[in-house]
Amino acid sequence: MTTNTPSPVGGLPMYDWPEIAGETDRFWDAVRAALSDQGIEGPHVLNRELGEEGLWLHPDLLVGQTCGYPLATGLAERVRYVATLHYAVEGCEGPNYSSVVVARANRKQPDFQNARFAYNSTSSLSGYRTLRGEIGPLEQAFSTLIESGGHRASAQMVARGEADYAALDAVCWHLLQALEPGTAEHLVPVRWCPMRPALPFITALTTPDDVVAGLVSALETAISTINRDVSCPTLRLAGVSVLEETCYSQLAGL
What we know:
The protein has helices at residues 21-37, 52-56, 68-72, 125-135, 138-141, 151-160, 170-179, 181-184, 209-229, 246-249; strands at residues 9-11, 61-65, 79-87, 92-93, 96-97, 99-104, 116-119, 144-147, 165-169, 187-192, 196-197, 200-204, 237-241. The chain is an alpha+beta fold. The chain is globular, with a radius of gyration of 19 Å.
């Protein structure tokens, strides 16, 4: 009698814009190769079907990327933290990143109280929570709040004049300028928010310690590989850190 062994699941949804899906896949191929060298099986392809929460809470999740605020709240004690990547873009320093508040380029002085604010989700650290932690309840700071569903959609709303401001994480701002310059040219940064821990990599709660350590090593090896081969120039990956989990748990208060 044979027993079916569950196949590991992996997904990197947070910065997986369609234009750079190939880069994301090449990064994953490098991670999977490094895992294989350690005797750890990784999924052959990234899962792009489950949706974020379906991926994060999948019982066979080997590796995924989430946002710091969900990790501190809804995912707390339901997944394991693995590591945090570094991004070589403006607004990032080591394992930390910040949000940039953008306005339409022809807007003059910031006037939040008479403005419409587009945000991706109330559970977003960079698009909602970090600004809330800085200026207080956003429903009091702005005249109108508009949920867009994504950083890119928020930026597009501001560029089209359907909203006045949006907060984008530093990597999304970099991607927008690189991949959608026609939108970015209509936007101007008006303030940078405080640095916070960048997007964490996670695994299923049941993943053994040795596999978690193997994942960290594989991420380090993969970043060295893709940077040496110059195979993922837009992702701008620069390193890996393993942070104290309190760096994320403290975000729950935002």
